[in-house]
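Quick start: read one record
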Amino acid sequence: MAHSHAHSHTHDHDHDHGAGHSHAPRVSGSNARRVFWAMLLTATFMVAEVAGGILSGSLALIADAGHMATDAASLLLAWLAFRLSRRPADEARSYGFHRAEILAAFVNGLAMIALVVWIAYEAVTRLMQPVEVMGGMMMGVAIMGLLVNIAAFALLHGGARDNLNLRGAAVHVMGDMLGSAAAIIAAGVILLTGWMPIDPLLSLLVALLVLRSAWMITKESAHILMEGTPAHLDLDEMRDDLRANVEGVEDVHHLHAWSLTQERPMVTLHARICEEADSDTVLKRLNARLADIFSISHATIQIEREPCEKDCAGACKDTPPANGETEAGHDRM
């Protein structure tokens, strides 16, 4: 190009600039431990619930055990994702394994939606063909299940509230907790009145409650996987703010924002500065403004002194940079 560029990568966390960037994992080990113990509790009681369902002849308890088996598998997936995300970056994955969390959340959300569909189908089937249930044993197992689920939910709820993977795991356990509460109510009605349809009716109610949370988890994780702009960022507002408040900046263009994980928004932009401005000084001001006003700790900024050429505009206008290419690609500009 005829004009010169200056590039910067400024972050609040440390980087090794020798052999590429090293994105140190910020996943809390506490979150991984919480998911592990919740998984262990869920899997252990699942075995007990299967035994209780077989002894009592309760298809409802066996079905709930299947629900818990799905949850245990989902919690295992979430735990593995946390473990993967703590691995350091390498040459093939310059951003590390942080996206494993988002993939796990997405799969968990889809699994919950599929489970809701299955619960709804089973509920309708049982409304047409009621299943005889031993209310006493059902009540005992359901109460035990509720206590186990409360303990697992308390473990997960005490972790990071803004971690999408942890929220996805908590939604699974919440579904089990509501299911156990519904089973207790259903067992009570069956013991008092013998009215069997109460079981599938309450199952439908629980399915609707879980569906909303499962949909939100799936939607948010899909948005991140599709490199969507973080919900809390307005790119037009950011562009106008940088133009108006950063001394030396004449124009901001090719502005793109996405998220590595829900807690880690990232930005790339081109900034055209006036001739007399010092590029390093303007660069520091831009990064400080992004951090202070928009909470962006990872920005890749290209400094220009002349308008960006048409071929650059065509390449950058509609296509956000892919992970792993954002920082390597600038050396070729």
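The first helix runs from residue 29 to 56.
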